[in-house]
Design goal:
The chain is mostly helical. It contains eleven helices and three strands, in the order H-H-H-E-E-E-H-H-H-H-H-H-H-H.
Length: 255
Protein backbone atom coordinates (compact mmCIF):
# COMPACT_ATOMS: atom_id res chain seq x y z
CA UNK A 1 0.00 0.00 0.00
CA UNK A 2 1.36 3.39 -0.90
CA UNK A 3 2.20 5.91 1.75
CA UNK A 4 -0.53 8.50 2.30
CA UNK A 5 2.03 11.21 3.03
CA UNK A 6 3.01 13.76 0.34
CA UNK A 7 5.50 12.39 -2.18
CA UNK A 8 7.95 15.23 -1.57
CA UNK A 9 8.27 14.33 2.12
CA UNK A 10 11.53 12.48 2.67
CA UNK A 11 11.55 9.05 4.33
CA UNK A 12 13.68 10.26 7.27
CA UNK A 13 11.53 13.36 7.78
CA UNK A 14 8.37 11.23 7.61
CA UNK A 15 9.69 8.95 10.36
CA UNK A 16 10.60 11.96 12.47
CA UNK A 17 7.21 13.62 12.05
CA UNK A 18 5.18 10.49 12.72
CA UNK A 19 7.32 9.82 15.75
CA UNK A 20 6.78 13.34 17.00
CA UNK A 21 3.03 12.95 16.59
CA UNK A 22 3.13 9.68 18.48
CA UNK A 23 5.18 11.10 21.31
CA UNK A 24 2.91 14.13 21.59
CA UNK A 25 -0.17 12.03 22.29
CA UNK A 26 -1.31 11.90 25.92
CA UNK A 27 -0.19 8.48 27.16
CA UNK A 28 -2.56 8.78 30.10
CA UNK A 29 -5.44 8.50 27.64
CA UNK A 30 -4.62 4.83 27.08
CA UNK A 31 -6.56 2.42 29.24
CA UNK A 32 -6.17 -1.34 29.72
CA UNK A 33 -8.14 -2.05 26.55
CA UNK A 34 -5.57 -0.25 24.42
CA UNK A 35 -7.86 2.62 23.36
CA UNK A 36 -6.08 5.66 21.98
CA UNK A 37 -7.46 9.14 21.28
CA UNK A 38 -6.02 9.10 17.73
CA UNK A 39 -5.98 6.22 15.24
CA UNK A 40 -2.38 5.92 14.04
CA UNK A 41 -3.34 2.99 11.81
CA UNK A 42 -6.34 3.39 9.50
CA UNK A 43 -9.13 0.89 8.88
CA UNK A 44 -7.72 0.21 5.42
CA UNK A 45 -4.25 -0.46 6.78
CA UNK A 46 -5.57 -2.78 9.49
CA UNK A 47 -7.50 -4.71 6.86
CA UNK A 48 -4.39 -4.93 4.67
CA UNK A 49 -2.38 -6.27 7.62
CA UNK A 50 -5.06 -8.85 8.33
CA UNK A 51 -5.14 -10.00 4.73
CA UNK A 52 -1.33 -10.22 4.62
CA UNK A 53 -1.27 -12.30 7.81
CA UNK A 54 -4.00 -14.56 6.43
CA UNK A 55 -2.06 -15.06 3.21
CA UNK A 56 1.00 -16.03 5.20
CA UNK A 57 -1.03 -18.50 7.24
CA UNK A 58 -2.44 -20.06 4.08
CA UNK A 59 1.08 -20.43 2.67
CA UNK A 60 2.61 -21.97 5.79
CA UNK A 61 -0.17 -24.13 7.26
CA UNK A 62 -2.10 -26.68 5.18
CA UNK A 63 -5.88 -26.58 5.16
CA UNK A 64 -7.79 -29.44 6.73
CA UNK A 65 -9.09 -32.14 4.42
CA UNK A 66 -11.69 -33.22 6.99
CA UNK A 67 -15.00 -32.76 5.17
CA UNK A 68 -17.05 -32.88 8.39
CA UNK A 69 -14.96 -30.14 10.01
CA UNK A 70 -15.14 -27.92 6.95
CA UNK A 71 -18.89 -28.36 6.64
CA UNK A 72 -19.43 -27.65 10.35
CA UNK A 73 -17.44 -24.43 10.20
CA UNK A 74 -19.36 -23.18 7.17
CA UNK A 75 -22.70 -24.05 8.77
CA UNK A 76 -21.97 -22.59 12.22
CA UNK A 77 -20.06 -19.57 10.98
CA UNK A 78 -22.69 -18.85 8.36
CA UNK A 79 -25.47 -19.07 10.92
CA UNK A 80 -23.70 -16.61 13.23
CA UNK A 81 -22.91 -14.18 10.43
CA UNK A 82 -26.47 -14.22 9.11
CA UNK A 83 -27.70 -13.49 12.64
CA UNK A 84 -25.34 -10.54 12.61
CA UNK A 85 -26.86 -9.34 9.34
CA UNK A 86 -23.69 -10.08 7.40
CA UNK A 87 -23.50 -12.10 4.20
CA UNK A 88 -21.34 -15.22 4.78
CA UNK A 89 -20.28 -14.99 1.13
CA UNK A 90 -18.29 -11.89 2.09
CA UNK A 91 -16.25 -13.94 4.59
CA UNK A 92 -13.63 -16.65 4.20
CA UNK A 93 -13.75 -19.38 6.83
CA UNK A 94 -11.17 -22.17 6.85
CA UNK A 95 -10.20 -25.11 9.03
CA UNK A 96 -6.42 -25.49 9.35
CA UNK A 97 -4.55 -28.70 9.94
CA UNK A 98 -3.01 -29.17 13.36
CA UNK A 99 -3.86 -30.23 16.87
CA UNK A 100 -3.78 -26.69 18.27
CA UNK A 101 -6.88 -25.88 20.27
CA UNK A 102 -7.16 -22.46 18.71
CA UNK A 103 -9.26 -20.16 16.55
CA UNK A 104 -8.97 -16.59 15.35
CA UNK A 105 -10.61 -13.86 13.28
CA UNK A 106 -8.55 -11.42 11.24
CA UNK A 107 -9.41 -8.03 9.76
CA UNK A 108 -10.57 -8.53 6.20
CA UNK A 109 -13.36 -10.94 7.17
CA UNK A 110 -11.23 -14.03 7.75
CA UNK A 111 -12.00 -16.76 10.30
CA UNK A 112 -9.67 -19.66 11.02
CA UNK A 113 -10.21 -22.67 13.26
CA UNK A 114 -7.70 -25.44 13.85
CA UNK A 115 -8.64 -29.11 13.79
CA UNK A 116 -7.74 -29.34 17.47
CA UNK A 117 -10.49 -26.87 18.38
CA UNK A 118 -12.98 -28.68 16.14
CA UNK A 119 -12.27 -31.88 18.07
CA UNK A 120 -12.25 -30.24 21.49
CA UNK A 121 -15.67 -28.60 21.22
CA UNK A 122 -18.28 -30.97 22.62
CA UNK A 123 -21.14 -29.58 20.59
CA UNK A 124 -22.09 -27.27 17.75
CA UNK A 125 -23.05 -24.65 20.33
CA UNK A 126 -19.61 -24.78 21.98
CA UNK A 127 -17.95 -24.23 18.64
CA UNK A 128 -20.37 -21.37 18.04
CA UNK A 129 -19.20 -19.89 21.35
CA UNK A 130 -15.60 -19.89 20.12
CA UNK A 131 -16.41 -18.44 16.70
CA UNK A 132 -18.83 -15.91 18.19
CA UNK A 133 -16.17 -14.74 20.62
CA UNK A 134 -13.71 -14.23 17.76
CA UNK A 135 -16.29 -12.34 15.73
CA UNK A 136 -16.81 -10.22 18.85
CA UNK A 137 -13.15 -9.17 18.78
CA UNK A 138 -13.62 -8.30 15.11
CA UNK A 139 -16.79 -6.27 15.70
CA UNK A 140 -15.18 -4.27 18.49
CA UNK A 141 -12.14 -3.34 16.37
CA UNK A 142 -9.79 -4.79 18.96
CA UNK A 143 -7.10 -5.39 16.34
CA UNK A 144 -6.97 -1.70 15.49
CA UNK A 145 -6.92 -0.70 19.16
CA UNK A 146 -4.07 -3.11 19.87
CA UNK A 147 -2.12 -1.89 16.84
CA UNK A 148 -2.46 1.72 17.92
CA UNK A 149 -1.27 0.86 21.41
CA UNK A 150 1.61 -1.36 20.34
CA UNK A 151 2.89 1.14 17.80
CA UNK A 152 3.45 3.62 20.61
CA UNK A 153 4.39 1.22 23.39
CA UNK A 154 6.71 -1.34 21.88
CA UNK A 155 7.28 -1.13 18.14
CA UNK A 156 9.19 2.17 18.13
CA UNK A 157 9.52 4.68 15.34
CA UNK A 158 10.67 2.23 12.67
CA UNK A 159 7.68 0.01 13.26
CA UNK A 160 5.42 3.05 13.31
CA UNK A 161 6.58 3.81 9.80
CA UNK A 162 6.03 0.19 8.81
CA UNK A 163 2.51 0.30 10.23
CA UNK A 164 1.75 3.48 8.30
CA UNK A 165 3.50 2.48 5.07
CA UNK A 166 3.08 -1.28 4.92
CA UNK A 167 6.29 -1.18 2.91
CA UNK A 168 8.38 -3.64 4.89
CA UNK A 169 7.83 -7.07 6.44
CA UNK A 170 10.39 -6.65 9.22
CA UNK A 171 7.63 -6.53 11.82
CA UNK A 172 5.31 -9.06 10.16
CA UNK A 173 5.46 -11.47 13.12
CA UNK A 174 4.81 -8.73 15.65
CA UNK A 175 1.88 -7.38 13.66
CA UNK A 176 0.42 -10.87 13.26
CA UNK A 177 0.69 -11.41 17.01
CA UNK A 178 -1.12 -8.14 17.67
CA UNK A 179 -3.88 -9.26 15.31
CA UNK A 180 -4.40 -12.35 17.46
CA UNK A 181 -2.42 -15.15 15.80
CA UNK A 182 -0.39 -15.78 18.96
CA UNK A 183 1.55 -19.02 19.00
CA UNK A 184 1.05 -19.50 15.28
CA UNK A 185 3.65 -16.78 14.68
CA UNK A 186 5.80 -17.58 17.69
CA UNK A 187 4.75 -14.58 19.76
CA UNK A 188 2.13 -14.28 22.47
CA UNK A 189 0.18 -11.12 23.15
CA UNK A 190 -2.92 -11.79 25.25
CA UNK A 191 -6.00 -9.67 24.86
CA UNK A 192 -6.69 -7.37 27.78
CA UNK A 193 -9.41 -8.17 30.32
CA UNK A 194 -11.52 -5.35 28.91
CA UNK A 195 -11.22 -6.72 25.40
CA UNK A 196 -12.05 -10.23 26.58
CA UNK A 197 -15.12 -9.05 28.46
CA UNK A 198 -16.36 -7.08 25.46
CA UNK A 199 -15.76 -9.99 23.07
CA UNK A 200 -17.55 -12.33 25.50
CA UNK A 201 -20.53 -10.00 25.70
CA UNK A 202 -20.76 -9.58 21.93
CA UNK A 203 -20.25 -13.30 21.35
CA UNK A 204 -22.97 -14.30 23.78
CA UNK A 205 -25.39 -11.84 22.22
CA UNK A 206 -24.57 -13.22 18.78
CA UNK A 207 -25.17 -16.79 20.01
CA UNK A 208 -28.61 -15.82 21.27
CA UNK A 209 -29.50 -14.14 17.99
CA UNK A 210 -28.41 -17.28 16.11
CA UNK A 211 -30.51 -19.48 18.45
CA UNK A 212 -27.55 -21.13 20.16
CA UNK A 213 -27.64 -21.76 23.90
CA UNK A 214 -25.17 -19.25 25.39
CA UNK A 215 -24.59 -21.58 28.35
CA UNK A 216 -22.45 -23.65 25.97
CA UNK A 217 -19.79 -20.94 26.33
CA UNK A 218 -19.76 -21.52 30.09
CA UNK A 219 -19.39 -25.27 29.60
CA UNK A 220 -16.54 -24.77 27.14
CA UNK A 221 -14.53 -22.56 29.49
CA UNK A 222 -15.21 -24.81 32.48
CA UNK A 223 -13.79 -27.70 30.51
CA UNK A 224 -10.70 -25.72 29.59
CA UNK A 225 -10.19 -24.66 33.20
CA UNK A 226 -10.71 -28.20 34.50
CA UNK A 227 -7.85 -29.38 32.31
CA UNK A 228 -5.56 -26.64 33.58
CA UNK A 229 -5.22 -24.97 30.21
CA UNK A 230 -2.51 -27.45 29.21
CA UNK A 231 -1.91 -27.41 25.48
CA UNK A 232 -4.53 -24.75 24.81
CA UNK A 233 -3.07 -22.41 22.21
CA UNK A 234 -6.32 -20.45 22.49
CA UNK A 235 -5.26 -19.35 25.96
CA UNK A 236 -2.05 -17.78 24.67
CA UNK A 237 -4.02 -14.85 23.29
CA UNK A 238 -7.23 -15.32 25.29
CA UNK A 239 -6.27 -15.40 28.97
CA UNK A 240 -8.66 -17.48 31.06
CA UNK A 241 -8.83 -16.31 34.68
CA UNK A 242 -10.18 -18.78 37.20
CA UNK A 243 -13.51 -17.00 37.39
CA UNK A 244 -14.09 -16.89 33.60
CA UNK A 245 -17.09 -19.22 33.68
CA UNK A 246 -18.69 -17.23 36.49
CA UNK A 247 -18.24 -14.01 34.54
CA UNK A 248 -19.87 -15.60 31.52
CA UNK A 249 -22.80 -16.71 33.61
CA UNK A 250 -23.24 -13.15 34.88
CA UNK A 251 -23.11 -11.84 31.32
CA UNK A 252 -25.78 -14.34 30.29
CA UNK A 253 -28.06 -13.08 33.02
CA UNK A 254 -27.45 -9.49 31.97
CA UNK A 255 -28.12 -9.97 28.25
Amino acid sequence: MACSCPTHLSRRRFVFLTGAVALSLPLTACDDSGDWPVDLVSDEQVRAMGLASWKQMRQEIPLSQNAAFNSALQDIGGRLLRALGSDPVQWEMRVFQGGQINAFALPGNKIGVFEGMMRFADSEAQLAAVIGHEIGHHLADHAQERLNAQVLKDFGLNALEVALNLGDIQYAREIAAVLGLGVEVGLQLPYSRDHELEADRLGLDLMRRADYDPHAAVALWRRMESQGGQGFAFLSTHPAPGDRAEKLERLIREV
